[in-house]
Design brief:
The chain is mainly α. About 75% of the residues lie in helices and about 0% in strands. α6 crosses α9 and α7 packs across α9.
C-alpha cells in the first residue's frame, strides 16, 4: 500500500525541507491532541509535540519505511511521552499528569476541534458542542491504557493494526481494550449526565 507520507519523509531524507513542512502541517494537530489527552495540559502537549518533530528532524537519516508514516510518528510520540512521564514523575509537584478527571479547569478544545460541528441549526450546534465536551470529560476519566487505545483508534481513526504496532501490543489486546474502553466510556458518560442534570 502506497503511503504518500512515507514518500514525503523519504524526500526529506534527501534534503527536501518542504516535504518535512508538509508532514508537520498534516499531522501537527493529531500529535498535539494525542499529548493533550495524555496530560490535560495544552502547553505541555504543544511542548511535547515540538520535541517530537525536532527528534524526527534530527534523526531523519535513521528513518526506515517499515510501516505507514503515522504508525512511525505515533510510536515516536508514545516513546517520548513515556520518557517525559518518567522524567516528570521523578520531580513531584512540578507537573501533574493525571488529574481528578472532572475536567472543570480544561476547555476540552483538543477533542472539540477534532469533532467540528457543522449545522445550520444553532440549537443543534449547541447540543453537539455540549456532547463533544461531555465526551472530552469522560475520556479524561478513562484509565490510561484504555484511553490510549481509544484516542489512537477512534479519535485519530488509525486501523487496529497500526494501534497494535504503535503500542507494541497484540491486535487482540487492542480489540479487547477498545471494547472495554467503549463500555467504560458509556458508564462514565451516564454518570456525568447524572451529575449535570
Amino acid at each position: 500500500m502506497e503511503d504518500p507520507d512515507v514518500a514525503l519523509m523519504l524526500a526529506f531524507q534527501q534534503g527536501d525541507y518542504d516535504a518535512f513542512g508538509q508532514l508537520v502541517e498534516q499531522h501537527m494537530d493529531s500529535v498535539v491532541n494525542y499529548f493533550f489527552f495524555q496530560c490535560r495540559d495544552r502547553d505541555l502537549a504543544e511542548d511535547c509535540t515540538q520535541e517530537v518533530w525536532a527528534k524526527l528532524f534530527r534523526s531523519r537519516q535513521d528513518y526506515q519505511p517499515r510501516a505507514r508514516f503515522s504508525t512511525y510518528l505515533f510510536r515516536v510520540a508514545r516513546n517520548h511521552w513515556i520518557d517525559r512521564f518518567r522524567s516528570l514523575s521523578r520531580r513531584p509537584g512540578e507537573a501533574r499528569l493525571e488529574g481528578d478527571g472532572d475536567g472543570a479547569e480544561d476547555d476540552g478544545a483538543g477533542l472539540i476541534d477534532r469533532l467540528p460541528v457543522q449545522t445550520d441549526d444553532p440549537e443543534a450546534g449547541i447540543r453537539a458542542e455540549e456532547a463533544a465536551e461531555l465526551l472530552a470529560r469522560a475520556l479524561r476519566r478513562l484509565p490510561g491504557e484504555m484511553r490510549e487505545v481509544y484516542l489512537l483508534g477512534e479519535v485519530e481513526a488509525l486501523p487496529y493494526a497500526e494501534v497494535s504496532t504503535i503500542l507494541a501490543i497484540p491486535i487482540g489486546t487492542v480489540k479487547s481494550r477498545m471494547f472495554n474502553a467503549v463500555r467504560k466510556l458509556e458508564e462514565i458518560l451516564g454518570g456525568l449526565r447524572g451529575e449535570d442534570s
